[in-house]
Amino acid sequence: SIQFSSIQFHSIQFKNIPFKNIQFKSIQFQQIQSALETTFIECIDTAAAAAASCGGGAKLELIVVSDQFRGMPSPLKRHRLINQVIDTELKDGTVHALTIKGAWTPEQYETRTSK
């Protein structure tokens, strides 16, 4: 059995554009972690790079690792589950764009990162 729990957050900034929504991000991590019982979350916010085009909403790239993805072989179903957790933020523009780079079980994550 794999036992780990980690959250990583990265902010990409270009041309000294200030990073926004730090409070939102930590609240969002708690929502995702609580709803999906995650063992690992990585989030990269690229909104600063696209601030002019996205109207200030967060532009997130996520990797989410959860035991809840076991028995759910379809990546589409896993992505929909993540989208449901932050549905309000997607609809109100707080999150302008969401790219799910990985929605894996702990074993899948370990396989992918041990290469």
What is the number of helices?
5
* Number of strand elements: 4
**Shape type:** globular
Structural class, please?
alpha/beta
Estimate the helix proportion, in percent.
Answer: 25-40%
Concise structural overview:
With 115 residues, the protein is α/β, with parallel strands linked by helices. The protein has helices at residues 22-36, 51-54, 75-85, 87-92, 106-113; strands at 6-11, 38-45, 58-66, 95-104. It has 5 helices and 4 strands.
General description of the model:
With 115 residues, this protein is of the alpha/beta class. The chain is 38% helix and 29% strand. The chain has helices at 22-36, 51-54, 75-85, 87-92, 106-113; strands spanning 6-11, 38-45, 58-66, 95-104. A 4-stranded mixed β-sheet has the order 1-2-3-4. Mean pLDDT is 74; it is low at 1-23.
Element layout with pairings:
Layout: E1 6-11, H1 22-36, E2 38-45, H2 51-54, E3 58-66, H3 75-85, H4 87-92, E4 95-104, H5 106-113
Parallel strand pairs: 1-2, 3-4
Antiparallel strand pairs: 2-3
Key terms for this structure?
115 residues, alpha/beta, 4-stranded mixed beta sheet, globular, disordered N terminus
